[in-house]
Amino acid sequence: MTMNNSDMGKYAAGFGLSLVVTVLLNAVILVIKEISTPFMSAMKAALGHHWTTHGALLIIVFIVLGCLFSATRIEDKLDSGKLLKYTFWAVFISVVIIAGFFLPGLNVAATIKY
Amino acid sequence: MLHALFGILGILFAVALFVDVLNAHEGNYRRIKKLSSAVAILIVLAFLIGGYWYVAYYGADREIIKAGKWPWAHNYFMEVKEHIFFSLLLLSIYLPIAVHGVMPLNNTKKKNLILGICALIILLGLFMEGAGGIISKGVIMGLGR
User: Fold this and answer.
1) Contacts of B66 (CB under 8 A, 6+ apart)
2) What is the per-residue pLDDT across B28-49, written as a single tens digit (0 to 9) for each?
3) Is any Cβ of chain B less than 8 angstroms from the Cβ of A12?
4) Which of A21, A81, A84, A86 would give a disulfide with B116, using CB separation of 3.0 to 4.6 Å?
5) Which of B3, B52, B72, B90 has the most A C-beta neighbours within 10 Å, making it the best mutation to test the interface with A?
6) How many distinct structural domains can be found in chain A?
7) Does A5 reside within a domain?
8) Which domain, by its residues, includes A93?
9) How far apart are the first and last CA of chain A?
10) What was the ipTM of the complex prediction?
């Protein structure tokens, strides 16, 4: 008989960890496709639009990692407090990377006609 | 536009869920589960409809915005919006999985997890709506109105 110290089910823990990884992966894919023309071209070629491929890739990774993590008794090592902390930081880091990456596009001053 | 409507409804349902979780007891567990599923369904609908519109029709609007007085409405807000949206989508899909996985909501840590996910969905959702407004205004500015 195995001990279960978790306060959540295996799918909540497995897909929770998958969420953390996938949210960070979102920002990584964005940076790579924006700085690498061949990668961007491959993403456009895959499903007709880079954004469609980006979204499909993230959803597939989320599901696959979620199933894998759920099968590894991750719920014994991860409680809901830790998961909330990881989720918050993953979203925060991802938002900072994405919002920061496009900051040069926010060139408001150059467009104001004096 | 329909995707904005589903997005707003998703945010409102997330607010309702947030309040329900704050006051969680056996009597509202069923409603908490239903609300979490509703948030996921509404945001997925916003993704499918908004995504189709973006891929099929946004190209023309993008050219108008970039040639107009507010090019940053696309260069910044659309670029940020279309990528941060994926975090909102994944959080929303995960929400019902988390709710079902932590039931019963009988301790603070479990409640905080659901409250935290709801708060992130609400904040990111509000950014989507605000950025959408700026992008729409960018088109109007580009048309010289």
Assistant:
1) B74, B75, B142
2) 999 999 999 999 999 999 999 9
3) yes
4) A84
5) B90
6) 1
7) no
8) 10-111
9) 76
10) 0.93
Beta-carbon contacts of B34 under 8 Å, excluding residues fewer than 6 positions away, are none
d(CA B41, CA B37): 6
For the four alpha carbons of A110, A111, B3 and B9, in that order, the dihedral sign comes to positive
Before B104, cis peptide (omega within 30)?
Answer: yes
Q: What is the pLDDT of residue A36?
A: 95
Please tell me which of the candidates B83, B102, B124 has its beta carbon nearest to residue A7: B102
Nearest to B22 by CA among B110, B87, B130, B100: B110
Tell me if chain A has a CB within 8 Å of the CB of B18.
Answer: no
Name, in order, each residue with C-beta under 8 angstroms of A84's C-beta and a sequence gap of 6 or more. B109, B112, B113, B116, B117
Residue A2: inside a domain:
no
User: Is A3 among the domain residues?
Assistant: no
What is the domain range of residue B14? 2-142
Please check whether residue A106 lies inside any domain of the structure. Answer: yes
Which member of B54, B70, B101 has the closest CB to residue A8? B101
Report the sign of the C-alpha dihedral through residues B115, B81, A48, A35, in that order: negative
Q: What is the CA radius of gyration of chain A?
A: 18
State if pTM tops 0.80: yes
- What phi, psi does B105 have (nearest 5°)? -80, 70
Number of domains in chain B: 1
DSSP notation for A102-113 = TGGG--HHHH--
